Amino acid sequence: MRPLIVLSCALSLLVPILAWWDLPVPGRTALAIAFVLLVPGAPLAIILIRRSGAVLWTLIPALSLSSVMLLTVAQVTTGTWSTPAAATILGLGNVACTAFAWNRTPPLRVRRPVLRRPGRRRVTSIMALFTAVALWWAATTSVDLDAAGAAGLVTVLPWTYWLALILAVSVAVFAITSKPEPDGVMAAIGVAVLAVMVTTFVGIADGGSPVGTAYVHVGFVDWISQTGTLREAVDARFSWPGFFTAASAVTGWAGIADATPLVVLFPVLAVLLSMAPVYVIGMAVFRDRAIAWTGVLLFVLGNWVQQDYFAPQAVAFPLMLTVIAVLLWQTSETGIPAGPARGWRRHLEPMRRTPARLPGFSACRALMLEAALLVIASAIVVSHQLTPVSLIVVLLLLSVLGATRSRTLWFGVSVVFATWFAFGATDWWTGHLSVLIDGFGRLDEAVGAGVVERVSGDPAYQAMQSARIGWSALFAIAGLVGWLVTRGGRLPMPVTAALVVAPVSLVLGQPYGGEVVLRVYLYALPILAVLAAGGIAPLVRARSALSRLALMLIMVLAAAGVTTARGVNVAFERTPADVLEVARAVLWETPTGSTIRPLATEGALRVARIGDLHHPPSVDGDGTAFERLLQQAPDVVFLTTMRERYEQITRGARPGWYENVATLLEASGQYQVTHRTEHVIVLERIPGLGEDE
User: Fold this and answer.
1) Are 539 and 519 in contact, with CB atoms under 8 Å apart?
2) What pLDDT was estimated at residue 450?
3) What does DSSP assign to residue 639?
4) DSSP, res 13
5) What pLDDT is attached to residue 617?
6) Where are the alpha helices (DSSP H) in 177-288?
7) What CA–CA distance (Å, rounded) separates 323 from 526?
C-alpha cells in the first residue's frame, strides 16, 4: 500500500504544477485521470480500511471522485471557480493525510521472485489477450457500420470480433476456475478487456460516441470551463452539476480544449469503477472468490443498457454500488445477530438488532467510515436526480432488516437530498413541480414508455427489441433461481431480495422519459449477476475440463447476447466522426441567436455554445418534414443519415427521404448546401430571403 501512497503524493505535487503553469507535458491527460481516481482517496481509504484488497480498491476511486465533485460544485456555486486551485486543495489534503496513512501500513518488503507454474499460465493468458485485442482492433477497422439495418450491429460484425470475444472469455473463465484458487489478477484483466471490447467497439470504429447525448454533456462541461458558472434556465441537468464540474476540472488539469477526447473511452472507465464493488458484493454474499469473479463477469456481460456513456449516471452508479458494497462487507464480516424472539415477535426482531463493529475498529474509526459513505452519497446527490432515490431506499431497507450498523445513514442521505433539491435544484423544480407531482405513481406510463413504445416499427427491429427485453428477463430469472438455490447466500434472503426490490420501487415514482425501466434493470443487475453466479456455483467450483468448457460456452453465449442487445440501435444512434466535425464547423460559423434545426435531437449540435444558438429538438407538426422546415424558416438545417435510418426503421420512411428533403429545400431557392459529407448535409438560409416573414 505504501507505493500507492507515494504515487498519490507524486500526483498531488505534479498535477497542480501542470495546471497552474499549463505545461504541455506528454501524457498529461492520463496524469489528470489518475489524479481524479487516487487523490485524496488513496490515503483516506488506507486510514479507514488499513488492509489491502477489493474493499480498498472500491473506496479509493469513490472517495477521490466524490471529493472532486463536492469541491468543484462548491467552487462553481460560490463563484470561486479555479481548476488549478481545486487541484492544489485536493493535493494538499492528500499530502496532509499521507503521514497518517503511512503509519498505518506495513513497510514494503522486497522478495526475490520465485518462478512457479502459474506464471507460465499467465504468460499464455496474456498472449491470448494480446491476440484477442489485435483481432478486435482489426474488426473496428473493417466493420461497415453504415450497413447495419433494423437488426443492428450483430449483422455486420466480422469474424475477427467474434474470435476476439471467444479468446477474452476463455482467459477470464480459465482465470476464475484456476486451481487451487482463482487467479484474481488475470480474472480482472480478462474481464476488463471484455469490457473494452463490448463498450467501445462502435465508438472506436466510428470515431465518436454511440450515444449523441454525450456531446450535449461535453457542451455543458465546456460552458463551465469557459465561464465558471452554471447556465440556468437552459437545461435541468445543470441543477445536478457534480459530474459536469468534475469533468470540467479534469479537462483543465489535462490541458485539453474540451471533454471530447474523454468521450469514446469513458464507458470503459465507468465499467471498471463498478467491477470492484460488484466483487465485494459477491464476496459478502458467498465468501467465494470464484463465485465473486463469476458475478463480475456476468455483470459486464449483462450490462447492455448503455448508461455508461459520458453522463452523470455513469459515475453515480458505481458510487452507489460502493456505498452498498462497503455496508454489505461490514455485515458479512461481523454477521447479523440472531434474536431470541419467537412467534409473531420474530418479524419485528430485525428492526431491533444491529451488527457489531468490525474487528479492530474503534467507535471513532467506525464513525469515520460511515462519514466517508455519507460523503460519497452526497456526491451522488449533487450529480444525479434518480440514483440517490434508489440508494436511500436500499439503505432504508437494510436498516429495517437490521443488516447494517449504519442504521441512520438513510436519514442522513435523505437530509442531504432534500436540502440540495430545495436549495440547489431550484432552477429545475420551480418549473417542473407539477410534472413531478403528476408523474408520481404512474406505473403504466413508466412501463409503457420504457417497454411497450420501444417495440414498434420494422418487424426485424421489433424482434430485436423483444430480444433485449428477453435478455433482461433471462438475467432476472437466473438471479431468482440463484437466490432460491443458495437461499440468498451467506446473508439472509430478505437482505439480498431488498437489493432488487429497492430499484423496482423507482417505477412507482417518475416515468423519467421511459428510461426508469432501464435504470431499474441496471441498478438491480449487480446483485442479479452475483446471485446468478451462485446458481451455477457447482459448475464454477468443479474446475474440471468439462465444467470449464460448459462455463466457457455459457459466457460466450452471454457475450454474444450483450453484443447483440447493446448494438440494436446502432443504425441511428451513432455519431460518426464527420457528423461531429461538421457540427463543430456549423457552430463555429453560425452567428449568435441563429436557429439550427435538425430533424430530431442531435447531440453533436450542442457540443459548444450552449444557449448561444437555438436548436429545437424536432420539427413536429402538420405536413411533410420539408413543408414544416420551409414554414419555420430556420437559419440552418442539419440533416444526417442516422435520422433517415431512424425514420425508415421506426416509421417506415422510403429510401432517399433524407436526400429528398435536402433537394426540395435547395430547389425552393431559399436554401443552399454549405456542407455535405458521407453522413451529413447542411443547408443555410440564403441571406435576404424571407426576412419579412
Assistant:
1) no
2) 46
3) E
4) H
5) 53
6) 184-206, 213-227, 242-254, 260-263, 266-286
7) 13
First to last CA, the chain: 70
Rg of the chain over Cα atoms, rounded to whole angstroms, equals 26
- Could you identify the residue written with the cell 452508479? 317
Alpha-carbon distances, residue 501 vs 258, 391, 507, 525, 529 (angstroms): 40, 12, 11, 12, 15
**CA–CA dist 460, 458 (Å, integer):** 5
389: enclosing H helix or E strand: helix 387-400
Q: Is 358 exposed, middle or buried (0-12, 13-18, 19+ CB in 10 A)?
A: middle
Environment class of 27 (CB within 10 Å of its CB; exposed 0-12, middle 13-18, buried 19+): exposed
Rounded to an integer, what distance in angstroms lies between the CA atom of residue 275 and that of residue 188?
Answer: 8
- Asked whether the beta carbons of 350 and 378 are under 8 A apart, the reply is no
| Phi, psi values for residue 338, rounded to 5° | -85, 140
Q: What are the grid coordinates assigned to 537, written together?
A: 456455483
Which residue from 372, 86, 92, 41 is spatially nearest to 245, judged by alpha carbons? 86
pLDDT value of position 506: 80
Q: What is the DSSP letter of 543?
A: -
Is this prediction's pTM over 0.90?
Answer: yes
Q: What is d(CA 82, CA 75) in angstroms, rounded to the nearest whole number? A: 7
Cβ neighbours of residue 23 under 8 Å, at least 6 residues apart?
17, 255
Q: What does the block give as the cell for 343?
A: 412467534
Grid cell listed for 173: 473463465
Q: pLDDT tens-digit profile of 427-436?
A: 666 655 555 5
The pLDDT assigned to 614 comes to 73
Pick out the chain residues at pLDDT < 70: 106-118, 338-352, 427-456, 509-514, 599-601, 615-623, 688-693
How many residues in the chain?
693
684 φ, ψ (degrees, to nearest 5): -115, 140
- Which of 569-586 are b and which e, b meaning 16 or more Cβ less than 10 Å from the residue's Cβ? bbbbbbbbebbbbbbbeb
Cα gap 105→86, rounded to integer Å: 28
Helices 459-486, 289-302: axis angle to 10 degrees equals 160
Amino acid at 438: D
Q: Do 638 and 598 touch, CB atoms closer than 8 A?
A: yes
Model confidence pLDDT, tens digit, residues 464-507: 999 999 999 999 999 999 999 998 888 888 899 999 999 887 87
Measured distance CA(391)–CA(410) in Å, rounded: 8
Structural contact between residues 24 and 255, judged by C-beta atoms closer than 8 angstroms: yes
* Of 649, 655, 198, residue with least CA distance to 463: 649
Contact yes or no for 394/527 (Cβ under 8 A): no
pLDDT score recorded for residue 693 = 42
Three-state secondary-structure class, residue 633: coil
Instruction: Enumerate long-range contacts of 25-34, CB under 8 Å, 24 or more apart.
Output: 28/253, 28/254, 28/255, 29/254, 29/255, 29/256, 29/261, 29/262, 31/253, 31/254, 32/250, 32/253, 32/254, 33/250, 33/254, 33/269, 34/7
